[in-house]
Amino acid sequence: MRGRRTRRLREAALVAFLVHALPPGAAVAEETGVQEMSEKTGGDDLDTEHIFGFAEGSSIGDKGEREIEAITIGSFGKVGSYNAIETETSLRATVTDRLRLSVGTLSDAYAIQDVQGLDNRHAFAFSGVIGEARCNLVDNRSNPFGLSLSFNPSYRQFDQPSGAKVGNTTLPVTVLFDREVVRSKLYVAFNVVYAPTLQPRSFGPQANDVSLIAAATYAVSPKLFLGAEVRHETLIQGGLVEHALFLGPSLYYDVAPHFSAKVAWAIQASDFGARSLDLDGFERHQVELQLVYGF
């Protein structure tokens, strides 16, 4: 009994000595250092939305966050000379912990020459408007994975592949899943997109686009992510069904506080079923540049 009491007295004396010997604020500094290290390595607070390629993560930001996002997608390479550039510029605001809303504009540029089924066209035009409601169903910061649902309607004056003046409405619904596989290093995402397009009967029947995207990205440093993805596109219009498979790399970089950039490149490969390229219905190359400023 006396031995136990003596040990306790010694331990109490040691604790008292350390408390008085350590400089004021040392414990706070240690805690701050740990917190800073966690922030630098990503940790639970990493926003996964933009770190992949054409795929997107499930994060929507915290309540009150806003951002301006510019996405430019260039499509190149059909039989003939085909070049099309689409730019979406949107203002996004997270209105609750689970809901983000956005509104934006669309503009297109075309340089089409001697492409079968398309008129020759060289033009730049304001094309339409776009909006989005994105709901976060499972928060990846407090769960093993993240899950969000997006409704992303748009109205276009011009048909996106051909540039023909038509006036159509697209109503995409997207399921976004992501997961952190290796702590603060390796992340994966899976997107399912169903995008029906309603258009005048004179232009043709309704088109339905179904996209499946699987992506992975690795944190080379806290600010730099390198990734790769595979995407399968299915376009159904009337009795015609077309398929295309795209593969490619991606790069995401935090340029400055609240400002990031992403580049992704997708190259059409031989489809699983057709075992050949479809350069009539789809492009050979697609390149995406995304700039995001948060405030």
How many E-type strands?
Answer: 14
One letter per element, helices H and strands E, the order comes to HHEEEEEEEEEEEEEE
β-sheet strand percentage: over 45%
| Quaternary class | single chain
Tell me the major beta sheet.
14 strands, antiparallel
Number of alpha- plus pi-helical segments? 2
Which spans have pLDDT < 50 for at least 5 consecutive residues?
Answer: 1-7, 21-43
Assigned CATH superfamily:
monomeric porin ompg
Summarize the structure.
The chain is mainly beta and 295 residues long.
Features:
295 residues; mainly beta; Porin; 14-stranded antiparallel β-sheet; 2 helices; 12% helix; globular
How would you portray this structure in words?
12% of the residues lie in helices and 55% in strands. The chain is mainly beta. Strands 1, 2, 3, 4, 5, 6, 7, 8, 9, 10, 11, 12, 13 and 14 form a 14-stranded antiparallel sheet that branches. Strand 2 and strand 3 form a beta hairpin. The radius of gyration is 25 Å and the shape is globular.
